[in-house]
């Protein structure tokens, strides 16, 4: 049994038209035994950036606290919110600090940034457990169902989806992928981040 | 002769006094006024800005940040607003320390720091500078307006000696005596935030040196609890919002005492 | 084998832990209390590596008491849980990690409701309506999935707990015979006989 699948859980992020979405399942397990069906692994970093932390649950909590601390100190000293691109590098360097004794987490982040011309730019990224960044233009996946998520997302995702269509796409992708994975599932949580609001919805899933 | 006991902070005078600390407090009583009032459903802070001038670049204060113009009122944590009176440079260092302390508490306990605990953290440091040799005490008094689930809304004051105390309404800086006796007359135990705002603004207008009351001379903040999320909401007013508030309270620019009495 | 169970109900929290102290295949003691009262409204069961368990539980107990003395009010259950979790997470990556599993539960005076946290030796923390540690968990969690009711009265809650204990006694090869049961609600902590 690998440490990465000790607690189970998966996260996916997708790009839409002037919006992004990030979603995860809600299972916390201890190997095959389910402990909680309400385990949060996606956290707001700012109003417009969300961070998903699939992997070992103790490190989910540790990293969540660490990033909240670092982002709060950044915000308070800089007197402005952190940009998604900057935050991605914060995640990367934080993980690489522990190159030879890593946190067992493969973070996924989604956010939108404002361009100088007043438009918005969607942003998604993922890293491996030592912080190697992957900036994708379509979708990123991680967690115990990542191989299944790749397959379904490859089939369902298309460019320039409006927020509601993106919500449907990411929800279907996640639910169908985690149904094929014993370590993920037990309900899901979806955030769609748009220019002026964040839509958060809880999804029911198979409870077996 | 007093000089012999002046030069170091850590030496008592024959009468048992620490002159440097008394001087620090004296310095504060010449600084811009900061005034706080505790209400049943919130806390109100106001401060008098001293450094003004046409050539002072305040462009960064207009947008970004947490509101305010960053001279007297600071957001210390999402549940605490601090008002400072005294040396600006010392105050900046204390504000920085307070923000780090609050974040450290959040990191270990996953909760906003209780207001009194934050005041204690700063006072521990301030007291240290009155005892260990060669250093000057912080020339800063602070007001802490905050909320926590233990004691709900709170207002604290701390001085350079490291003492702190809780208040229903208090004032630090220039003319604090006048302001405090005014507050003593007008404060009621069941005061709401709306009335507290009025009380704070009226008291400020009476104690401030200048005849005009406007955003160029005033900083203003209110801490309440958001009824929807049940979380504390700290609002430091931007210059335009202060002018709008003064207008709605009927206290614009030229202040006249006739209105006060009615 | 060690077992501990806990569940929240309407305004209360029940915590139970077996009372055996075993070394290898030998039962050394059968009246060991493995539930610590950390503050007037906070309970913690501990199980795992003998030695580590008591050492860590006392470390937690003293630190929570210290906070209470310094700050005139005790830590809230959620804050205590976060602090304990961090201690275990830091211990995990140290030279000698504690091997202790905990169920932490308490009644929050500030928000007027009970909370239960499942914590393991890795520093995993999760707030749950019911929880269990040990081999008994495999039976108890299924029963609790079926019978747990967050709005149940204390009597109903205790009956659900008894179901779990009876099932574990019936099905587990090496099952403990005696359990210590404690309840915490707005009035504080008390022992309960099943």
Summarize the structure.
The complex is a heterotrimer of chains A (208), B (262) and C (194). Chain A has 208 residues and is of the alpha+beta class.
Describe this structure in words.
The complex is a heterotrimer of chains A (208), B (262) and C (194). With 208 residues, chain A is α+β, with helices and mostly antiparallel strands. Chain A has helices at residues 57-78, 84-96, 146-156, 163-178, and strands spanning 10-15, 20-25, 28-30, 33-36, 42-46, 49-52, 108-114, 120-127, 133-135, 139-143, 188-193, 198-203. In chain A, the strands form three sheets. In chain A, strands 10-1-2-11-12 form a five-stranded antiparallel β-sheet, with helices on one face. In chain A, helix 3 (146-156) runs antiparallel to helix 4. Chain A is globular and about 50 Å long. The model of chain A has no long low-confidence stretch (mean pLDDT 97). By secondary structure, chain B is α+β, with helices and mostly antiparallel strands. Chain B is globular. In chain B, helix 3 (88-109) packs across helix 4 (115-128) and helix 5 (176-186) packs antiparallel against helix 6 (193-207). Chain B contains eight helices and twelve strands. Chain C has a single domain, classed as Aminohydrolase, N-terminal nucleophile (Ntn) domain (Glutamine Phosphoribosylpyrophosphate, subunit 1, domain 1). Chain C contains four helices and twelve strands. In chain C, the strands form three sheets. In chain C, strands 10-1-2-11-12 form a five-stranded antiparallel β-sheet, covered by helices on one side. In chain C, a hairpin with a 2-residue loop joins strand 1 and strand 2. In chain C, helix 3 (137-147) runs antiparallel to helix 4 (154-171). Chain C is globular. Classes of the chains: A alpha+beta (208), B alpha+beta (262), C alpha+beta (194). Chains in contact: A-B, A-C, B-C.
CATH architecture of chain C: 4-Layer Sandwich
CATH hierarchy, class of chain C: Alpha Beta
**Contiguous helical run count of chain C:** 4
- Give a quick account of the main beta sheet of chain C: strands, pairing sense, barrel closure: 5 strands, antiparallel
Oligomeric assembly: heterotrimer
Question: What is the N-to-C succession of helices and strands of chain A?
Answer: EEEEEEHHEEEEHHEE
Give the strand line-up of the largest sheet of chain A. 10-1-2-11-12
Q: Approximately how much beta-strand content do the residues of chain A carry? A: 25-35%
**Helical segment tally of chain A?**
4
Number of domains of chain C: 1
Radius of gyration of chain C: 16 Å
Which chain pair has the greatest contact? A-C, 18 and 19 residues
Mean pLDDT of chain C: 96
Shape of chain C: globular
Average pLDDT taken over every residue of chain A: 97
Strand residues, percent of chain C: 25-35%
Total number of strands of chain A: 12
What is the 3D form of chain A? globular
The CATH topology of chain C: Glutamine Phosphoribosylpyrophosphate, subunit 1, domain 1
Percentage of helical residues of chain C?
Answer: 25-40%
Number of strands of chain C: 12
Organism (chain A): Crepidotus variabilis
Pfam families (chain A): Proteasome
Keywords (chain A): Cytoplasm, Nucleus, Proteasome
Family (chain A): Belongs to the peptidase T1B family.
């Amino acid at each position: 049994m690998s440490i990465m699948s000790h607690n189970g859980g998966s996260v996916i992020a997708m790009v839409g038209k002037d919006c992004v979405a990030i979603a995860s399942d809600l299972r916390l397990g201890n190997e095959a035994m389910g402990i909680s069906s309400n385990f949060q692994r996606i956290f707001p970093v700012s109003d417009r950036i969300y961070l998903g932390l699939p992997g070992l649950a103790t490190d989910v909590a540790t990293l969540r606290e660490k990033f909240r601390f670092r982002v709060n100190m950044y915000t308070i000293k800089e007197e402005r919110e952190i940009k998604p691109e900057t935050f991605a590098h914060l995640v990367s360097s934080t993980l690489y600090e522990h190159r030879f004794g890593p946190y067992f987490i493969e973070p996924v982040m989604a956010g939108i940034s404002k361009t100088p011309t007043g438009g918005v730019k969607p942003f998604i990224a993922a890293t491996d457990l030592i912080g190697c960044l992957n900036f994708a233009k379509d979708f990123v996946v991680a967690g115990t169902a990542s191989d299944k998520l790749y397959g379904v997302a490859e089939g369902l995702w298309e460019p320039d989806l409006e927020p509601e269509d993106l919500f449907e796409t990411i929800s279907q992708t996640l639910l169908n992928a985690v149904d094929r994975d014993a370590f993920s599932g037990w309900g899901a949580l979806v955030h769609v981040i748009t220019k002026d609001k964040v839509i958060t919805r809880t999804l029911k899933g198979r409870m077996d | 002769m007093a000089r012999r006991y002046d030069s170091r902070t850590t030496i008592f005078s024959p009468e048992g006094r620490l002159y440097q600390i008394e001087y620090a407090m004296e310095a504060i009583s010449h600084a811009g006024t900061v005034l706080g009032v505790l209400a049943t459903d919130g806390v109100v802070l106001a401060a008098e800005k001293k450094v003004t001038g046409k050539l002072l670049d305040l462009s960064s204060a207009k947008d970004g940040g947490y509101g305010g113009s960053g001279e007297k009122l600071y957001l210390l944590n999402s549940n605490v607003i601090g008002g400072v009176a005294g040396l600006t440079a010392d105050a900046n260092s204390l504000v920085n320390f307070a923000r780090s302390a609050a974040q450290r508490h959040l990191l270990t306990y996953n909760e906003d720091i209780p207001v009194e605990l934050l005041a204690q953290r700063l006072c521990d440091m301030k007291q240290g500078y009155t005892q260990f040799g060669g250093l000057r005490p912080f020339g800063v008094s602070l007001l802490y307006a905050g909320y926590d689930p233990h004691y709900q809304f709170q207002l604290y004051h701390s001085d350079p000696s490291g003492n702190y105390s809780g208040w229903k309404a208090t004032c630090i800086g220039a003319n604090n005596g006048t302001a405090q006796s005014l507050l003593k007359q007008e404060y009621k135990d069941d005061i709401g935030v709306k009335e507290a705002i009025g009380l704070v603004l009226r008291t400020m207008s009476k104690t401030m040196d200048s005849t005009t009351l406007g955003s160029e001379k005033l900083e203003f903040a209110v801490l309440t609890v958001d009824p929807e999320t049940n979380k504390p909401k700290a609002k430091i007013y931007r210059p335009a919002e202060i002018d709008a508030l003064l207008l709605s309270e009927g206290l614009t620019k030229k202040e006249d005492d006739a209105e006060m009495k009615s | 084998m060690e077992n501990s169970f806990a569940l929240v109900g309407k305004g209360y929290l029940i915590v139970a832990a077996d009372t055996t102290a075993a070394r290898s295949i030998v039962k050394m003691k059968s009246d060991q209390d493995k539930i610590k009262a950390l503050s007037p409204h906070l309970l913690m069961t501990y199980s795992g590596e003998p030695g580590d368990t008591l050492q860590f539980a006392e470390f937690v107990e003293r630190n929570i008491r210290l906070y209470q003395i310094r700050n005139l009010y005790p830590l809230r259950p959620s804050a205590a849980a976060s602090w304990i979790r961090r201690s275990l997470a830091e211990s995990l990556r140290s030279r000698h990690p504690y091997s202790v599993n905990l169920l932490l539960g308490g009644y929050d005076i500030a928000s007027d409701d009970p909370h239960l946290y499942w914590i393991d030796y890795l520093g995993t923390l999760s707030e749950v309506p019911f929880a269990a540690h040990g081999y008994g968990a495999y039976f108890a969690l299924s029963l609790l999935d079926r019978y747990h009711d967050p709005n149940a009265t204390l009597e109903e809650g205790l009956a659900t707990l008894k179901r779990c204990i009876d099932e574990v006694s019936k099905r587990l090869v090496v099952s403990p015979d005696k359990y210590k049961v404690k309840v915490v609600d707005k009035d504080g902590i008390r022992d309960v006989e099943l």
